[in-house]
Description:
- By secondary structure, the protein is α+β, with helices and mostly antiparallel strands.
- 65% of the residues lie in helices and 13% in strands.
- It has 8 helices and 6 strands.
- The strands form 2 sheets. A 4-stranded antiparallel beta sheet has the order 1-4-5-6, with no helix packed on it. A two-stranded antiparallel ribbon has the order 2-3.
- Helix 6 runs antiparallel to helix 7.
- The longest helix has 68 residues.
- The mean pLDDT is 88.
Amino acid sequence: NYIRYAFEHNAAVQQNDLNLDKAMLALQEARGYYLPNVSFNGMYTLAKGGRTIDLPVGDMLNPVYSTLNRLTASQNFPQIENQSVQFNPNNFYDVKLRTTMPLINFEIGHNKSIRKESISYRKAAGNVYKRALVRDIKTAYFHYIQAKEALKIYESGANLAAEHIRVNESLLKNGVSNITVVTRARAEAQKTASMITEQQNRVSNAQAYFNFLLNRALDTEILEDSIDAVRDRGSSTPQQREELFQLDKMRQIYELNEAVYKSNKIPKLNAFLDLGAQDFNFRVNDKSLYLLGGVNLQWDLFTGNKTNARIRQAKADKAIVDKQYEEADQAIRLQQLQAENDVHTAEKKLLSSRAQMELMERYYHDQLKLYKEGRLLYIELLDAQTQWIAAQITYTLGMVERRIALAAFEYSTASYNL
């Protein structure tokens, strides 16, 4: 439940989810390049001066008009002046809807594939962090449980120290013991109280770190189970680590980059269609409307060798990733071997520490019985108590080390079902 909560609330996991959403949007963008693009363009110009073209219409037509007037004995053909027309259109508008559509463009398809592989890469990156987070949460949880168990042991030691004071005071009253032994018992009780305070601080720090991983208030209460009550939730079947999957996707991305650069040598063909109107003085009629369509061909014949350089760079990047894959694969195999050995070692140490704890418990109670009978020095009883407490601490540490080793093995083999 805590792992599931962390997946939903951990800040780094949320960042990875946002990066994945961004990659999904990039794929949608890449798909959009296959579709037609429709845009509205408008232009209105005012002009004065600039280049002109002289049209001698008067010189060409006036003699003809004069002859016609004489022949018809009328003035139906007036004289006209030569014209000077400026190139820049004045009081002119041009509005249109332009539709463009790629017909041949291999770069679009390769970029779409790159976006798909980027999504897989982002998913793997998120799972890399999640898998490490599972390990860290388990480790932090077991450390917290161990700190609480150690606190209980020290509190139990405080109860023993209180019992020692009671026994020694009783022996003092009966003349069997002396005040020095009572003073020593009280000093041991104070020492145990100091250890309890120190252990409470460890519990607080372990609690704060665990809650930090879950991205919640550092003093939030943690539900406790005994260490042995927690069961592994991962599968027993090792899987491919996401780090290798990431590198494999990166290699595919570089291969697609190489294909993109090679596609730059292939001509690109686009079609366009304009539907619009243009005229002077904002006139709109059947003559101002127009329809214009065509195709556009682009073929880069010489690019200063930039394309070939980019192709070689992509090949070099892919070769680097191949070497990184080999190195990562070997490193993961080594990590798995070490993790498996650590599990076996932790299990053997746990069995040994359990046997030692049981022996030290029996030894302490035997010593306590002898002390109450007056056949044992108090310093010997304290030594037995110290060894029993140390054996209990060692056993709880052994349980934690075993569970942490199992979490590390689970991480190294990617056997936890995310």
